[in-house]
Amino acid sequence: MVTRAMSTTKQAGEVISDVARGYLRLGLVGDVGPVRAAKLVAHFGSLEAVFEASRSELKRVDGIGEQIAGRIFSARGDDEIEREITRARACGLRILCPEDADYPRPLVHTPDPPMCLYVRGTLERTDAVSVAIVGTRRCSHYGSEQAQRFGEVLASAGFTVVSGLARGVDSWAHRGALRAGGRTLAVLGNGLATIYPREHEQLAAEITEHGAVLSELPVDIIPDSKNFPRRNRIVAGLSLGVLVVEAGRTSGALITARHAVEYNREVFAIPGRIDRPELTAGANGLIRDGCAKLVTSLDDLLDDLSQVGEIMRQGLRDDERDAESAVAAHRQARLESHEKAIIEAVRHGASRVDAICDEANLDAGTVVAALTKLQIQGFLRRLPGDCFELCTSR
């Protein structure tokens, strides 16, 4: 959606940066999600230009009709944004946008990063080295044991554990990470004025002390089942990989796994009992269909995380540069051969499409399609004149 402008780092105690105010104003407009927002910014060139556009100009953008254009036009003069910031301050929250330095870097490399992320607690750069643990709310005793076990061993190895604070597998994963003295992030499907489910209020407070509770939803949005799939994409986007522990055929954990595949993340699953399909058919099916790697131990998981796994085995969690370079190397290792060739062509000085085609020995159609994906994933950025360069932050 954006290039990262590091000048927007907020001072301690500040709820929201100036640039995030623009994202928040747009995000509070009904029916304008991350994808439509990205189209608006791409069309007009900046958030400021979006709010300077006329209704007729707004309607020309793909996916923006008469009603949405009218709401965007009206939003420039209302004070809803100030009410939202006041509520966030009262609830002890910060509001981050993709251009803020504290915004989680892995989310920037997804096609639909939250325009605004509400945060209670702290985010660290090393949270990029994270694994999500998800599964059914009605887990068996075995499922709760494994969720807590893997939460504990992953945190002990230096990973941040990501989950959704739901009953069942999620809560046991968070508890395992806390038990190990590690970091954990909880992504909610409601506004952070309340904790859902209510019985996890104390757990959420502990997570805040050793990580953060997050949501993309305005402060006072109440829990609603339609918001949980959106929450699941954030869980997947924050992580290097998603570990599924007990999931039936209709489990929301499978939505998280699907997002992980779409975002080029790893998917892992713990095998479950075949006589409890209501609890295990989804996770076992992922393994059967080759969509998930079978995991029985931490070593299984580390083996599939290549350079990240090697560094975590060596205990280099405290070296942020090593951890971040490992994440970048892991992401590039999962690219197709022609995508790697394009990156190397740009690295060697080719910037225009025809030059990239020549350097990489690829046809124009393949290159143009791959350039779009590589921009979304944060490997390349487009410059004026249809030129491309490497994203130096990667």
- The portion of residues forming beta strands comes to 5-15%
Mean pLDDT, nearest integer? 86
| SS class | alpha/beta
The shape, in one word, is globular
Give the count of structural domains: 3
Report the strand count: 11
Q: What's the main sheet like?
A: 9 strands, mixed
N-end to C-end Cα span: 16 Å
Secondary-structure element series: HHHHHHEHEEHEHEHEHEHEHEHHHHHHEE
Unreliable stretches, pLDDT < 50, 5 or more residues?
1-12, 316-324
Radius of gyration: 21 Å
* SS field, number of helical segments: 19
CATH C-level name of the largest domain = Alpha Beta
General description of the model:
The protein is α/β, with parallel strands linked by helices. It folds into three domains: 6-103, 5' to 3' exonuclease, C-terminal subdomain (DNA polymerase, domain 1); 125-313, Rossmann fold (3-Layer(aba) Sandwich), CATH 3.40.50; 335-390, Arc Repressor Mutant, subunit A (Orthogonal Bundle), CATH 1.10.10.10. 48% of the residues lie in helices and 12% in strands. The protein has 19 helices and eleven strands. The strands form two sheets. Strands 1-2-6-5-4-3-7-8-9 form a nine-stranded mixed sheet, sandwiched between helices. It has a two-stranded antiparallel sheet with strand order 10-11. Strand 7 (241-245), helix 12 and strand 8 form a beta-alpha-beta unit. Helix 11 packs across helix 12, helix 17 (337-347) crosses helix 18 and helix 17 crosses helix 19 (364-376). The chain is globular, with a radius of gyration of 21 Å.
Structure described in brief:
With 394 residues, this protein is α/β, with parallel strands linked by helices.
